[in-house]
Each structure stands twice: as C-alpha cells, then as structure tokens.
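Format notes (please read before filing issues)

Several people have asked whether sequences and structure tokens are stored in separate files. They are not. Every record keeps both together, in the order shown below: the sequence lines, then the token lines. Line labels are part of the format and must not be stripped during preprocessing.
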Amino acid sequence: MRGMLSGITLLELLIALAISAALLTLSAPSFTDKVSEWRSRAQAMRLLSAINLARSRAVRLDKEITLCPGESPVSACSGPYSHEIGRAHV
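Then the structure lines:
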C-alpha cells in the first residue's frame, strides 16, 4: 500500500489559474484609471512647483514675472506671450 501523496492536482491548478486570470482582467481597467490619475497629479504638482518658483523669483528680483508654457526659454514666451514685462522662463 502506498502512502498518501501530498500536492495539488492538475484540475485544482487550472481552477486557480482561471480565477487568477478573471481577477486580473477585472482589475486592469481600474489600474489604468489609477495610472492616468497619477500622471494628472504629477503634472499638477509640476505646475504648482513652477508657480512657486516664479513667485519666489518675483519677490527676490522685485519684478513682475510671466510664467510661460514650453521647454525652451527662447520659444516659450513667443506669440501671445511675447510682452517684455519681466519675462522669465521657469
């Protein structure tokens, strides 16, 4: 007589895999929403940081500072942002 074997059967493994796949499928959309929310929050924090930096520079220089969009100081304040009153790229 053989002793009792311990372990899981193939059927139990397949059932666990199916349940895991179903749970993963249900959680994927909410994870995508969270990633989008985290990106939005990060952008808002970058904007707040730029505003605070512009404010501190305005106080330090005792000048009016314009916060312009863009990456480059040369092109950032062109077009509708092209007035020259204390222009500074932050």
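For reference, the curators noted about this record: Confidence is low (pLDDT under 50) at residues 84-90. DSSP finds two helices and no strands in the chain.
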